[in-house]
Hints:
mainly beta; 2 domains; four-stranded antiparallel sheet; three-stranded antiparallel sheet; 1 helix
Amino acid sequence: MRNGNNEIIEYFHISQCPELTCIFVDDASVPYLEDWVVYEEDAHFVNNEDECAALQTDEFVSEKMNFYPNPVDDKLNISNPDLSITSVKVYDISGRMIFVKKAASSLIEIDLSRLQKGIYFISAEKNGKVLKSKKIIKK
Length: 139
């Protein structure tokens, strides 16, 4: 979709593409992307290949792992019932890492209160390998 003309697209719909993780667009931070219909939970709008690589996962992810609430006001919770997560990384929309938190419990709380409103990516990792990434909206 990265073609220099994303703003003129009137209708965009993606469904039944479970392996889709990255949709390359002209500018992943523009508001009109919220109107584009993407039914794939793990699909994210990205600006470049580096952002996409930051979102890729190499291992099986337990369906029990959950990120909530989303959208979030201040505190984001991550359920970690298998105790598989060893760290959580927060990235801004441009793919820049904001902070890292070490994890060792079944419920991980991430304080996002100091962040501005916007879209962020949360990466749950085990020993440096991404288990699951999630797009989070900070209210």
